[in-house]
Amino acid sequence: MGSDDLTTRPSPEGAALVVEGLGLKGPRGWAFRDVSFRAGAGALVALEGPSGSGRTCLLLALTGRMRTKEGTAEIGGLPLPRRMAAVRRIAALGQVPGVSELDPSLTVAEHLRERALLQRRFDGSVRALLRRPGTRAAEARARIDEAVAAVGLDLAALPKGDRTSVRDLERLEALRLSLALALIGRPRLLGVDDTDLKLSDADRAEAWALLRAVADTGTTVLAVCSEAPADALRITTVAAPAAADPDARDTAEDGADDTPGETGDAAEDDDTTEEGADDALAETGRA
User: Fold this and answer.
1) Which of 32, 94, 157, 213 is deepest in the core (most CB within 10 A)?
2) What distances in angstroms separate CA 98 from CA 19, 128, 269, one per listed residue?
């Protein structure tokens, strides 16, 4: 896939990142600590480190899914953790195990249709919801086509076309699908976990070329990996002591604090219930 595939979609205004001394602590210790960096809009940021070093927790924190315990961060001008809900509205997730996984029993077409419906339900205006069903369906189809083209997912080349089940996809094609689902929402920030996991050298290079092309359109990209490419902004996490759980997300998610569409700052500041966390993770769907 060349970068020309992405030039036809509207270029979002990417979210610039300003991170100072950020840290997240779970019940068994620090998942990560003292993370500081700056990235401009449309940057490709590689969160590099060994398994267990808190890189996934950092990804979830920067996309508004986990509440940090120390330090500050601004995502597109939105301060964390105070404006977590607002950050979630401009950030989308590709594949993140346990948070935004693909359903192996569903087909590619079913995933795409479901994501388009969720996008319309949570992000559409009242006027948009009152449009004729045929108009809404055409708009959803256009968003799907745009996202699929953006990630170079050739539906016709799949074993059963768009009726191919996710369980039958090669890993690189599953990555493309997860990114297409995220891009349906035209996010300013895109996060993806395990970017290079179980990929051959050739597929790894293709995956990074894909993420680089997405960043070139304006969307800021955060990618968790074990080895960052030379042209990415490399943020290295260090393995925490054994007491620190890299999956501290189980209890740190209490900061993901409201459902889609809520705009009040008070709700973003105060609602830290477990129900709020469940809603926030459900919001990501398979994006």
Assistant:
1) 94
2) 25, 32, 25
Give the Cα separation of 55 and 63 in Å (integer).
Answer: 13
Residue 174 confidence (pLDDT) above 90:
yes
Q: Which fold has domain 3-101+187-284?
A: Rossmann fold (3.40.50)
Measuring CA to CA, which residue among 238, 221, 244 is closest to residue 34? 238
- Dump pLDDT digits (tens) for 95-140: 999 899 999 999 999 999 999 888 766 555 545 555 666 666 777 7
What is the residue extent of each domain of the chain? 3-101+187-284
pLDDT tens digit string along 225-252?
999 999 999 999 875 554 444 444 443 4
Cβ atoms within 10 Å of 5's Cβ, excluding its own: 16
Q: Which residues contact 134 (CB under 8 A, 6 or more apart)?
A: none
